[in-house]
Amino acid sequence: MGLALTTWQVLVSGPLLTPDEHLSRALVRAVPDAVTERLSDLGNIEAAVPVLALAALYAARRGNRLGALAAALAMALVPAFVVPLKEWTARPGPLEPWAAGYFPSGHTATAAVAYIGAALLLRPYTRRPWPVAVASALTAATACGLILRGWHWPLDVLASLLLCLPLLCGVGLAVRRGVRPPA
User: Is residue 85 part of a domain?
Assistant: First the structure.
């Protein structure tokens, strides 16, 4: 529902865009570009997907093939959902008003599904909260880097996180169903 609301606001230039633009203007370049670019890079496919792949391999070796498959499917669905939304909304970027395709943020979606998906896969084997905390921190760092650098509006990032919620809920459910009881 949140994704539908944010998408509608972008499509009709609704009232949420004004505070979104004000917040973006206040935050862009508040941190040096060298820092925000590195944070943004955490959402690159080359950085995030190998983390998920290693966690999926580990879970599959431990017998949770269902969880590993669900995580891989969730990652495959990210571009299947993000790319059509980018084309449909054609939202310009904060620093590039002549360009289009910024809504929702693909980097944020990639980071969320890869890092949080990996944490969900590892959680049954660690029995500690740190995988989810680390994954959430990496996802938040990516999102903040994208906003602070001016590569995405805050609403773009929020929409991506909302888009990933059902995907990650599916991964979590599959992980729970696929974990073998201890021998």
Answer: yes
Please state the domain count of the chain: 1
Please write down the long-range contacts of 46-52, taking CB distance under 8 Å and 24 or more positions apart. Answer: 48/110, 48/111, 48/114, 48/115, 49/75, 49/110, 49/114, 51/114, 51/115, 51/118, 52/113, 52/114, 52/115, 52/117, 52/118, 52/121
Tokens describing residue 62: 């431990």
Judge whether 137 lies within some domain. yes
Per DSSP, helices labelled H in 42-96 are 45-61, 65-89
Domain range for 163 is: 38-178
The sign of the CA dihedral 50, 99, 167, 145 is positive
Threshold 0.90, pTM exceeds = yes
Task: Give the contacts of 34 (CB within 8 A, at least 6 positions apart).
Answer: none
Does residue 170 lie within any of the structural domains? yes
* Tokens 């979104």 sit on residue: 20
Peptide bond into 32 cis (omega under 30): no
Identify which of 92, 105, 97 has the alpha carbon closest to the alpha carbon of residue 155.
105
Q: What is the pLDDT of residues 3-49, one digit of tens each?
A: 999 999 999 999 999 999 999 999 999 999 999 999 999 999 999 99
Q: Would residue 17 count as lying in a domain?
A: no
Which tokens in the block code for residue 25? 């203007």
Calpha distance 2→161 (Å, rounded):
10
Least confident range from 63-67, 142-146, 179-183: namely 179-183
